[in-house]
Structure formats: structure tokens, C-alpha cells
């Protein structure tokens, strides 16, 4: 053994070096255990997106558009008047953001024809699709959810599981390697306080993580 090798061996025999190595090994093992435990207690749903219902406002009788009180992009409260068709004043059943509104006063609208559309963003939810074999049976309403969106990847948002679809969404079919049977996908709906995150918009791509404990 040459001098350099002896020096290296001698360094590793020093008590403080051995203690340092022991600490590194212990913390490495602890970190691995915590990561494993965290992964065991969470279910990731990367195939997710934000979705808000759209409320369409239409007249009950035919008539011309006589007045329009809103324009695209406006935020309105529930029960706000949005237009007058014929002699009928139309009101928003849901609060939210105006997604579409006609530009020309005087346009004719038939009964049930949409005049104004409202994105009910306060009812926006995260919708994720998960294979039935990837932990679906462990997901239940009320479980804590954290999620990120591609547009703001550095921020984490909070929510809870709202409901699990009772039937397969059938958006895609995978196959179980073990028996070649088709694996169905199910939708998981996760609600959150949309008023706390005004930057979020319907249609954004998301990645969700469900916390089982």
C-alpha cells in the first residue's frame, strides 16, 4: 500500500470522519424512508385539468335583443340582469365571468337560444383521470388534495376530493400486464376555494396529488 492510500485509509479511521459518515447514512436512510412513506400515502393523478361549468342564459319567448348590460370578460354576481330580449329581462343564475355576449343589439333570438354565457368560475374544480388499478379504491370524498398547474408550476394549491365518478369515463383503455384485461379510467373531482386563487382559469392543465392520511 503506497503512502497516498495509507493516508486515505487513515482519514476514514478517524472518529470524527466515521461519525460524519454515520450521520450521512442515517439521514440518507431517513430521507428514503420518509419519501417511501409519503409515496405510499399519496396517489398522483397527472392527467388532470381545471374545469368550471358554463351557464347559458336564453329567453323563454322569441324576440329581438333590445338591451345588453354586459360584455365579454365582465364579472357579474348571481341574479344580475344581463340583457332584455323582447320584453323579457334575462338574469344570470350563476355568478362568474361573461364568456360570450352578442355584439349587435336588434339581433333576433328564438326561445332557448343562448344570448349570454357565464363561466361559473367559483364552482371550478380539478378533474383528474386515473386507471382503476392505480389506487382508485383508496380515494374517497373529503381527502386532502394538493395540485399544481402548468401555467404556475412553482405554486402549490390546496383542495379536497369532492366525488369519484361512479362509472368509467372511457377516455382511454390500457391493459393490465398480468392478465391482458382492459383497464378502465375513472374521473376524480376535486374542489377548491377558487376565490383564493384568482389566477386559475378553466381549461388549465394540472397535476394533482391525493393525500390518503
Structural features, described:
The protein is an alpha+beta fold and 213 residues long. It is 17% helix and 40% strand. The protein has 2 helices and 16 strands. The protein has a 6-stranded antiparallel β-barrel. The longest helix is centred in the first third of the chain and has 26 residues. The protein is elongated.
| Spans of at least 5 consecutive residues with low confidence | 31-39
Terminus-to-terminus distance: 55 Å
Oligomer: single chain
Strand order of the largest sheet: 1-10-15-12-11-16
Give a short account of the largest sheet.
6 strands, antiparallel, barrel
User: Which sequence of SSEs, written as H and E, runs from N to C?
Assistant: HHEEEEEEEEEEEEEEEE
Number of helices: 2
Overall strand count = 16
What percentage of residues falls in helices of 4 or more residues?
A: 10-25%
In short:
The chain has 213 residues and is an alpha+beta fold. The chain has helices at residues 3-13, 15-40; strands at residues 42-51, 54-57, 63-68, 75-76, 81-85, 88-91, 96-100, 108-109, 116-119, 125-131, 144-149, 152-164, 174-175, 182-183, 185-191, 205-211.
Descriptive terms for the model:
40% strand, four-stranded antiparallel sheet, 2 helices
Outline the secondary-structure elements:
Blueprint (H helix, E strand, L loop, with lengths): L2 H11 L1 H26 L1 E10 L2 E4 L5 E6 L6 E2 L4 E5 L2 E4 L4 E5 L7 E2 L6 E4 L5 E7 L12 E6 L2 E13 L9 E2 L6 E2 L1 E7 L13 E7 L2
Antiparallel strand pairs: 1-10, 1-16, 2-9, 3-5, 3-8, 4-7, 5-6, 7-9, 10-15, 11-12, 11-16, 12-15, 13-14
